[in-house]
Every structure is written in C-alpha cells, then in structure tokens.
C-alpha cells in the first residue's frame, strides 16, 4: 500500500514523524480514516485515540486531548494540544478521573465548574476508549 | 607606599567583581541548557502549524478569514519580545534597534504603530522613548507558559479584528547558536504564503483548490488561526529566553576576562610602585650614609 508522510506533534514535543499507510483519528464530526491521496482536509479533533499504521504494518496508538488535523494528499499533520503514547495511559487513573468528573457534574455548583467537569469527563471517557481499542488489538493477535 | 596600598584595594575590589561575573556566567550556562531544551521542545509544533497555515494561505477557501485578507495599511502592530533582566550584552538593544528601524519606515509612510511589550525591558524602553504601548506583560520567569501570553496577544488580535490594526508583527531574537543571536521581525497577520523550500507538493498551483472543513470553515479557521498566532508568539518568547541566557553567558564571560586583564595590568603597576619605593629607600639610606 502506498504511504504518506505523517507528523504528529503536541505543544510540548514531536510525537511521531515518518511514513504511514493509514491514519484513523477522531474528528469533531466523527471518526475518519486517511489513506494516501486523500483530498485536502482540515478538521478539529475530539479527545480520543489516533491510530497510525506504519509502513511495516505496525500499528501505533496515541491519545490526544484535542487539536487539529490537516490532510494534504501526501502529507498529514496532526497538531495535538497534548498527546501521549497510548501504552503510557493508565486505565485505573482514567477510570478514577471519570468517576471524579461524574461526581463533580452531580454537584452542579456553578456553570463554569459544570463545563469543566464535562470536558474532563469527555477526556477520561476518550482515554478509556483508547485503552479499550489498544486491548482489543492486543487480544486479536 | 600610599599609592601601592590604593592599588592593592583596587585589585581586591576588581577580584570581587570578577567572582560575581564568573558565577553569573556559570548560572547562565546552566540555565541556557534548560532554556534551549524548552525552545527545541516546542519548535516542532510551531513549525508544523506554520506549514499548515502557509498551506491555508495558498488555498482558495470558500470562506476568507479576516486574517487572510490584505488591507490598506493605516496602523500596524508590533509585539516586541525582550528579556526581564539586563546584563545580557546587546540582546535587548538589538531588538529595539530593529523596532526603531521599522517604526521609522512606517512613519515615513504616515502609518501609525502600536506596540505590545513582552518583558520588562521592552516596557521600560517604550516608556522612556515614547511609542503607543497598548499591552504589556512582564515577569514571565524562566519557563514562560502560553497562558501568560494570551492576554497581550488577544489585545492585539482584538485590535486586528476591529480593524484598528492592519498588520501584526512579532520582533524577537533568533537563536542562531550560543555565540550569535540576531533580531528578526516576522509578519504574523495577515498570513503570508511562505515559500517553503522542501515542499513536495510545490507543483500544485496555488489558489485553485480548497480544503474540506469539519465542522465548518469559519469555526475551524477561527480556532486554528488564533492558535497559530499564540504558538508563534510563544515560540518567540521561549527562543528569546534561550537567547537571553546565551547572551548573558557571553557577556559575563567577557566581563570575567576583562577583569582578569585589568588585574594583570594593575599588578604590574603595583609591582613597579613597590620597586620604586624600595629603590628610593635604598638611595635615601645610601645618600644619608655618604653625607655622614
């Protein structure tokens, strides 16, 4: 399969740079898969996993908390707010964060707190989703 | 022997100064390494977002964002990045010289200039030399955060949105290497289609294609372009911080060297003075003995 140049950066550092065959990301209007020759596209990203299939068939999963995705036919750039290698994610911590967010949403003290809690919840859920995807992939092997 | 004593104390005080400057040199050297790490860490993001934005500038979008339209220039804005502290050689002065040159150029064309000062040295400069200062931020410390800059940046962006500014520049020091820092003026808004050298899709004619946007062009570009400006200013600030430490290291190194030279010279003078005093004493004794 033909490959394209793929760069993933977060505000703190470069995460991935190299050739990729396929990239799957969570855009604001739904998940999208990118192959070489895709039409130019710009989208915002939701918190969620980014899956990159490298040229050698290895798949790598990253977790981003939001950002932008730019697609050119031969170059794909991911500008993440923060990105982590999915392997480094901690399921227990994510689950705890989810519970915490649910609790503080129950309080509904002020609107500001509520929106923040909702954002935290979305992020925790997205982290869990990433971990689950990673696990499914592992069990398939 | 009075002159010799004075020279002794002078040597002592220079030695003390030398100790201070050499300590500052070492502190700057270790801070520089950290500042440099911070600079290289955020560089990929700034570079990539610049690439994306220059692609956008080349496209022919359905929705032309305010930031992409060249307007008739009546008033321009400069974000001037400086350090908070001095003793860094010509670092800040070079930036201010570059700003003054630009201001003169605009003045000749009857264009007014607004400034946003980042770092207290820029603040002081505009207070002393005039210039319409609309925003200022200082006390960023050694690890500046993006949040600290959003205030001053948004003042400038708002002015741009409201049509008070027709162009926005950022001026800062570029880190060439440890020995060399040079001031650069970069245009932030409106966007420029950069001529990137290593681009593989250069064949694609500019202006004849457009992106697919999700959710829609306006929301997306609003967010992306604000993020772009913030990241560029942030990069300018961390780069300037690395420059500051490098420049201070060099300045303090040469101060230490100069103090060493000064001490050598003074020691020579001291030795001569001492020798002269001894010779005089001997000749007095000899003269006295001869008279007897």
Give a quick set of tags describing it:
A: 141 residues; alpha+beta; Single alpha-helices involved in coiled-coils or other helix-helix interfaces; 2 domains; 2 helices; B: 292 residues; 5-stranded mixed sheet; 5 helices
Blueprint (SSEs and pairs):
The complex is a heterodimer of chains A (141) and B (292).
Chain A: E1 4-10, E2 14-27, E3 30-34, E4 41-45, E5 48-54, E6 59-64, E7 67-71, E8 75-80, E9 83-85, H1 91-107, H2 111-140
Parallel strand pairs in A: 1-8
Antiparallel strand pairs in A: 1-2, 2-3, 2-5, 4-7, 5-6, 6-9, 7-8
Helix pairs in contact in A: 1-2
Chain B: H1 2-58, E1 75-81, H2 91-108, E2 112-118, H3 120-129, E3 132-137, H4 146-161, E4 167-175, E5 181-189, E6 212-214, H5 217-291
Parallel strand pairs in B: 1-2, 1-4, 2-3
Antiparallel strand pairs in B: 4-5
State the share of residues found in helices of chain A, binned by percent: 25-40%
The proportion of residues in beta strands of chain B is 5-15%
Q: What is the β-strand count of chain B?
A: 6
Gross geometry of chain A: globular
Number of helices of chain B: 5
Biggest sheet of chain B: strands, sense, closure? 5 strands, mixed
Name of the CATH superfamily of the largest domain in chain A: F0F1 ATP synthase delta/epsilon subunit, N-terminal
Into which percent range does the helicity of residues of chain B fall?
55-70%
Which class of secondary structure composition applies to the elements of chain A? alpha+beta
- Please state the overall shape of chain B, judged from the principal axes of the Cα atoms: elongated
End-to-end distance of chain A = 21 Å
Determine the mean pLDDT of chain A: 82
Based on CA atoms alone, the radius of gyration of chain B comes out at: 28 Å
Could you state the oligomeric state of the chains shown? heterodimer
Largest interface, with counts of residues having CB < 8 Å to the other chain, equals: A-B, 26 and 27 residues
Name of the level-1 CATH class of the largest domain in chain A = Mainly Beta
CATH topology of the largest domain in chain A: ATP Synthase, domain 1
Q: Give start-end ranges of low-pLDDT stretches of chain A.
A: none
User: Helix and strand string of chain A, N-terminal first?
Assistant: EEEEEEEEEHH
């Amino acid at each position: 399969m033909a490959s394209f140049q793929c760069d993933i950066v977060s505000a703190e550092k470069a995460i991935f740079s190299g050739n990729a065959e396929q990239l799957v990301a969570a855009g604001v209007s739904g998940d999208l898969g990118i192959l070489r020759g895709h039409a130019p596209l710009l989208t915002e990203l939701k918190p969620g996993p980014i899956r990159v299939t490298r040229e050698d068939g290895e798949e790598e999963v990253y977790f981003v908390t939001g950002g932008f995705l730019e697609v050119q036919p031969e170059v794909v750039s991911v500008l993440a707010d923060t990105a982590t290698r999915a392997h480094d994610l901690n399921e227990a911590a994510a689950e705890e964060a989810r519970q915490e967010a649910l609790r503080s949403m129950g309080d509904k003290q002020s609107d500001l707190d509520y929106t923040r809690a909702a954002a935290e919840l979305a992020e925790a859920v997205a982290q869990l989703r990433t971990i689950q995807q990673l696990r499914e992939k592992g069990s398939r092997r | 022997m009075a002159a010799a004593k004075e020279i002794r104390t002078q040597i002592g005080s220079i030695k003390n100064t030398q100790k201070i400057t050499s300590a500052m040199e070492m502190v700057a050297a270790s801070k520089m390494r950290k500042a440099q790490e911070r600079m290289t860490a955020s560089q990929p993001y700034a570079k990539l977002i610049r690439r994306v934005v220059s692609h956008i500038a080349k496209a022919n979008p359905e929705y032309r964002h305010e930031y992409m339209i060249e307007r008739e220039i009546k008033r321009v804005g400069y974000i001037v990045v400086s350090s908070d502290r001095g003793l860094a050689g010509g670092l800040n002065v070079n930036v201010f010289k570059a700003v003054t040159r630009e201001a003169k150029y605009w003045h000749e064309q009857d264009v007014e200039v607004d400034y946003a000062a980042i770092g207290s040295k820029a603040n002081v400069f505009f207070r002393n030399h005039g210039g319409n200062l609309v925003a200022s931020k200082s006390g960023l410390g050694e690890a500046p955060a993006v949040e600290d800059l959003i205030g001053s940046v948004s003042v400038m962006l708002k002015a741009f949105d409201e049509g008070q500014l027709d162009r926005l520049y950022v001026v800062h020091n570029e880190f060439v290497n440890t020995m060399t820092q040079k001031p650069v003026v970069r245009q932030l808004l409106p966007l420029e289609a950069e001529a990137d050298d290593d681009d593989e899709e250069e064949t694609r004619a500019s202006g004849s294609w457009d992106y697919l946007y999700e959710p829609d062009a306006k929301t997306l570009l609003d967010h992306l372009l604000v993020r772009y400006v913030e990241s560029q200013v942030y990069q300018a600030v961390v780069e300037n911080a690395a420059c500051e430490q490098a420049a201070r290291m060099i300045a303090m190194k040469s101060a230490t060297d100069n103090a060493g030279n000064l001490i050598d010279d003074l020691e020579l003078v001291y030795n001569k003075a001492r020798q002269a005093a001894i010779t005089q004493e001997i000749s007095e004794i000899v003269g006295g003995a001869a008279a007897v």
